[in-house]
C-alpha cells in the first residue's frame, strides 16, 4: 500500500504547478472526506482540491491495482498508465490527463514531464561477446577452458533456477507470452519471415501454431516449475573475460518463468554453429552441447524440464532461422533448422542426447 500524505501531495503540486500551488483537501470522489486517502494504494481514485495560479482546481489521482491479467508488476501497470496519458486527450469526449508520475521508495509523488522515450544506464563490463568464442572454436577447435565455461553456464543457470515462486497465474502468463507475444513465437511467424516463405510456407506455419496449442494445454500442468530466469540467455548476451569469467546482459521477458527457456536458448545456438560446417550436431559443438546440457541436468536433477522443453526450442529455432536476423545462412543450415522446429514438437519428452534426429 502507498502511504500517501498531505505533504507528498503538496510537494507534487508545487513541482507541477509552481511554488504558489496550495493543497486544500483530498478524499473520496464526491465527498472530499480526508479519510478516503487511506485507500489510495489499492487503486482507489483520490479527489484532490488545490489552488494554483489564483484558481481553485480539482484533479483525480489514481494508481492501478495489480492483478493476474498481465499486471502483476509495476512496470506492467506503468505501461498502461503511459498509454492512457499519451492517448486519452486525442479522443473526443475522453477525460483529459493532467499529469503522469511515479511513487518513489519514500512514497513521494514524482512527476514525469513531457516524456518522449525512456532509457536505461548500465555499468560498463569487461569482456568480449561469447559468440566470438564460438567463431574461434569453429575455425580452430576447442581450447583449454571452453568446456569448463559451458559447465559454468550450466551451474549458473542451476543456481538462478533454484529460486522458485508459487504463482500458477504467472506461469500461465509466461506460457501465453511464449506463444502469443509480439516478440515471441506468433510475432516471429508474422514478422520475421516474408510471405510465402520458400523454406517454410504458410501451411507449415499454420500447422506449427495448431500443434503449439496442444503444448500450451500440456504446460498448464507444470505451474509448479515457475522459477527465476534470465529470459534471453544466448551468445550475444554473454560477456567473457580473458580469465574465463563471464557476465550476462539484457535480462528479458520477466523475472519469473520456465527454466527450460534459458536452457534451450544457449543449447540451440550450439546446434546452429555446428550446422555451418556439418549437417548435424557434431565435433566441438557437440562436446559443448553435451557438456552444458549434461551439467545442467546433473546439477539440478530436473529431468522434468525435458517434458516442457519443445515449445522453447521452437521459439529459439525460429529466431535463429529467421532471414531477417540471419540473412546469410546457407540453404542447408536453414532447412535443417526448420526441420528441427517442426519435429521437436512431436516428442512428448525432448531427446536431448540424440538431438540430430530432429534435423531430418
UniProtKB/TrEMBL annotation:
SUPFAM superfamilies in the record: Protein kinase-like (PK-like)
A Pfam family of this chain: APH
Coiled coil: none
InterPro entries documented for this protein: Aminoglycoside_PTrfase, Kinase-like_dom_sf
Record-given protein name: Aminoglycoside phosphotransferase domain-containing protein
Superkingdom of origin organism: Bacteria
Domain Aminoglycoside phosphotransferase: 148-290
Species this protein is from: Pseudodesulfovibrio mercurii
Amino acid at each position: 500500500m502507498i502511504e500517501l500524505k498531505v505533504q507528498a501531495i503538496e510537494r507534487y503540486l508545487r513541482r507541477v504547478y509552481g511554488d504558489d500551488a496550495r493543497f486544500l483537501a483530498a478524499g473520496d470522489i464526491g465527498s472530499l472526506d480526508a479519510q478516503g486517502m487511506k485507500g489510495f494504494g489499492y487503486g482507489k481514485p483520490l479527489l484532490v482540491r488545490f489552488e494554483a495560479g489564483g484558481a481553485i482546481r480539482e484533479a483525480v489521482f489514481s494508481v492501478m491495482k495489480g492483478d493476474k491479467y498481465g499486471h502483476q508488476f509495476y512496470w506492467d501497470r506503468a505501461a498502461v498508465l503511459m498509454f492512457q496519458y499519451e492517448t486519452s486527450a486525442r479522443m473526443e469526449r475522453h477525460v483529459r490527463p493532467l499529469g503522469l508520475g511515479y511513487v518513489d521508495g519514500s512514497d513521494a509523488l514524482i512527476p514525469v514531464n513531457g516524456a518522449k522515450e525512456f532509457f536505461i544506464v548500465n555499468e560498463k563490463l569487461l569482456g568480449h561477446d561469447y559468440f566470438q568464442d564460438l567463431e574461434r572454436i569453429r575455425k580452430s577447435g576447442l581450447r583449454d577452458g571452453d568446456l569448463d565455461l559451458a559447465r559454468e553456464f550450466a551451474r549458473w543457470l542451476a543456481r538462478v533456477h533454484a529460486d522458485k515462486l508459487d504463482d500458477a497465474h504467472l506461469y500461465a502468463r509466461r506460457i501465453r507470452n511464449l506463444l502469443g507475444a509480439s516478440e515471441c513465437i506468433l510475432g516471429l511467424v508474422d514478422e520475421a519471415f516474408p510471405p510465402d516463405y520458400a523454406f517454410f510456407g504458410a501451411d507449415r506455419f499454420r500447422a506449427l501454431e495448431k500443434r503449439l496449442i496442444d503444448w500450451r494445454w500440456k504446460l498448464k500442468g507444470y505451474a509448479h516449475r515457475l522459477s527465476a530466469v534470465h529470459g534471453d540467455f544466448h551468445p550475444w548476451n554473454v560477456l567473457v573475460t580473458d580469465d574465463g569469467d563471464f557476465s550476462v546482459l539484457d535480462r528479458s521477458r520477466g523475472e519469473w518463468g520456465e527454466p527450460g527457456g534459458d536452457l534451450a536458448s544457449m543449447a540451440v545456438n550450439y546446434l546452429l554453429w555446428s550446422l555451418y560446417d556439418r549437417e548435424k550436431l557434431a565435433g566441438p559443438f557437440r562436446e559443448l552441447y553435451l557438456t552444458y546440457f549434461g551439467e545442467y541436468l546433473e546439477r539440478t536433477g530436473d529431468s522434468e524440464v525435458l517434458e516442457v522443453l519443445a515449445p522453447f526450442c521452437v521459439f529459439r529455432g525460429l529466431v535463429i532461422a529467421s532471414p531477417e536476423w540471419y540473412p546469410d545462412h546457407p540453404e542447408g543450415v536453414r532447412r535443417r533448422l526448420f526441420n528441427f522446429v517442426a519435429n521437436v514438437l512431436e516428442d512428448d519428452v525432448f531427446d536431448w542426447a540424440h538431438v540430430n534426429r530432429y534435423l531430418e
